[in-house]
Amino acid sequence: MQTFFESPLSSVLSKDHFTPKSLNFFQTYTLRNFRQIPQIKRLSPEQIEAVEVVGRVFPFKTNNYVVNELIDWSNIPDDPMYILNFPQKEMLAPDQYDRIAGLLKKNADKNEIDEAAMKIRWELNPHPAGQGKNIPIHNGSKLRGSQHKYRETILFFPSQGQTCHAYCTFCFRWPQFVGMKDIKFAMRETRLLIDYIKNHPEITDLIFTGGDPMVMSTKLFATYINPILKAKIPHLKTIRIGTKALSYWPYRFFADDDSKDLLHLFDKVVRSGMHLSIMAHFNHPRETEPEAAKEAIKKIRETGAVIRTQSPLLKHINDTPALWAKMWQAQVELGCVPYYMFIARDTGSHQFFAVTLEEAWKIFKNAYQKVSGLARTVRGPSMSAHPGKVQVMGISEVNGEKVFVLRFLQGRNPEWVGNPFFAGYDPHARWLTDLQPAFNADRFFYEAEAAQNT
């Protein structure tokens, strides 16, 4: 497979040319200007229409690095990186697509189109896994920019980090980017977060998420990090940063104007005695092939931070064992730690990307068998469902009944973690809620307690 494609950036992607002056331009493309992408002429009128229609419902943004370095324009429409960034017709149900397409064809008023798009969004389960129930309360006030679902871990959504360098078409947080304000997570104030963590000694891990926190300038990101370090909370041991920047804009870590400051901030976190983990989202092996991505990984690791990698299993993108084995092996060779294979959440364009639980388990098992022990740090396939992270451990036969063997990797109740349980075999199941308890049981062991949190 070709690693680089002809582009303005390719000429500077050698280690001798990693300089801010040659790499510090960043161009985004949205519905407003995507027709200006030079390669867009390779799309058919039907494909351009699909971007226009589906992009009215789901967020659409890409950038010059993705367009020039990751997408193989000779393989349209099947190229996985193209599908990962550009809306496809099948991401909406036919009636949903036709509703928006019809309005565009008759040049309907923007407000009418926006209203129709919003109705469709509410049909697409915009709030999966009970996220609204994860908002913590401190002194009678909801911390709307945080989630505290698992005992040891709190998520923080800095308000200035609620966008990304480019949007993934599968993203389960798509409502964050399309104006669904009632269910948007974002918080400016770190003082309330610090007070909450201080009052909850069970919390050991703080996750910065979004959006992507790495879209913020270092100066702005430091206004969040420095107060946390200054607070010296004894039980807070780890800071995690969830980011897709290593894939979508690796220059953030070595060629942007404030890249050195960002790396110094990472170093500061590590020298404070805290563990810093960069939770990198890589969905395809191609994302680690450019020299820019390799350089970014190298620079981050030099600060003492650890890079852990994760991705959902996605039809059309990465649904083969060989691809996953290749991806994990490449990550290990670059010094990253494979962490999670997720199952695509039941939201948004889930029907386009989802595979069955049986397929997911087979892909994971066969990929896992192809790599050495260093890559077998990865866990999966895992569903981030309402009661917790549920791993599909396999398919077995117990007392003559074919069953899924499952267990909790994380749970709303920590007592559930590690406990195996069984669901009746269903070849069509794609999510936890598609399953029924095995052995004629009335309910799964966790359901009564989980129902109290709904």
Describe it for me?
The chain is an alpha/beta fold. It has a domain at 10-122. Helix content is 30%, strand content 18%. It has 15 helices and 15 strands. The strands form three sheets. Strands 5-6-7-8-9-10-11-12-13-14-15 form an eleven-stranded mixed β-sheet. Strands 1-2 form a two-stranded antiparallel ribbon. A two-stranded antiparallel sheet has the order 3-4. Strand 7, helix 8 and strand 8 (238-243) form a beta-alpha-beta unit. Helix 5 (94-105) packs antiparallel against helix 6, helix 8 (218-231) packs parallel to helix 10 (259-271) and helix 12 packs across helix 14. The chain is globular. The termini are far apart. Residues 1-22 have low confidence and may be disordered.
Write a short abstract of this structure.
The protein has a domain at 10-122. The protein is 30% helix and 18% strand. It contains 15 helices and 15 strands.
